[in-house]
């Protein structure tokens, strides 16, 4: 009985996952298909530059979601390297589009030593990207986003991401991390699921504290390494 029940659960989550994927891939594919058909009948590139730009964006979003699904599907394909946590944050912050002009982002790191971790560059980048993006999207009216890094006595890097955004109510808090659960019109609902998986892959911890209309504090720890100890990543 247990086994068949579990099988039923598995089947259900497979079909949920498939439905979500189909949904998120169909929209951009439809756009790309439509514009491609237009280009076939009217192949004058100069007039169609705008359409081509839209097509590229849609193709990028298909590629992005495909990469994310690949991380969920094949967690063992990791390329571990020493990574500087604050450099990586700076890199991710430089590539984020700020939606509100009254947003201030601060990154506080211990200035005597820059914490290093052993991680997969693409996964850790994606982790920081999603957490920063969620924080900024929650701050519709701007506010301060504080990122702070600490080196703990237990040889971890503690990363705290504190936003002054909308916060989450009980229902949202219960459901975050469910595949495709989103409260946003253009959200994929894969962000936090992915974050949790990536942290698991890196033997870290994750916790979240949120107060409605006040903001959210995400706290993570990741095992720290010494800068030169690239060999400890092998
Ligand atoms: P998405 O961002 O695509 O909606 P996520 O998995 O990243 O998917 O987040 C799921 C939901 O959790 C969001 O839709 C939002 O309601 C909530 N959420 C996540 N992070 C925050 C945050 N920092 N502040 C407020 N709500 C958040
Ligand atoms: Mg998100």
From TrEMBL:
Enzyme Commission designation: 2.7.13.3
UniProt signal peptide: none
EC category: transferase
Alphabetized UniProt keyword annotations: ATP-binding, Kinase, Membrane, Nucleotide-binding, Phosphoprotein, Transferase, Transmembrane, Transmembrane helix, Two-component regulatory system
Organism of provenance: Fictibacillus macauensis ZFHKF-1
Domain Histidine kinase: from-to ranges: 20-226
One example GO MF annotation: ATP binding
Protein name: histidine kinase
Source superkingdom: Bacteria
Catalytic activity: ATP + protein L-histidine = ADP + protein N-phospho-L-histidine
């Amino acid at each position: 009985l247990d086994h068949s029940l579990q099988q039923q659960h598995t089947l259900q989550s497979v079909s949920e996952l498939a439905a979500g994927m189909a949904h998120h891939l169909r929209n951009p594919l439809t756009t790309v298909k439509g514009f491609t058909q237009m280009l076939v009948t009217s192949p004058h590139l100069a007039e169609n530059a705008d359409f081509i730009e839209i097509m590229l964006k849609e193709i990028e979003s298909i590629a992005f979601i495909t990469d994310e699904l690949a991380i969920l599907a094949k967690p063992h394909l990791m390329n571990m390297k020493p990574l500087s946590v604050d450099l990586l944050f700076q890199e991710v912050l430089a590539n984020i589009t700020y939606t509100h002009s009254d947003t201030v982002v601060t990154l506080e790191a211990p200035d005597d030593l820059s914490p290093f971790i052993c991680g997969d560059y693409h996964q850790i980048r994606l982790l920081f990207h999603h957490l920063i993006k969620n924080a900024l999207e929650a701050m519709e009216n701007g506010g301060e986003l504080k990122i702070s890094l600490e080196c703990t006595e237990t040889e971890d890097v503690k990363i705290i991401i504190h936003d002054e955004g909308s916060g989450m109510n009980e229902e949202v808090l219960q459901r975050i991390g469910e595949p495709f659960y989103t409260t946003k019109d253009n959200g994929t609902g894969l962000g936090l699921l992915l974050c949790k998986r990536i942290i698991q892959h890196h033997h870290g911890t994750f916790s979240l504290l949120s107060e409605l209309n006040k903001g959210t504090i995400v706290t993570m720890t990741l095992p720290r390494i010494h800068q030169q100890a690239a060999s400890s990543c092998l």
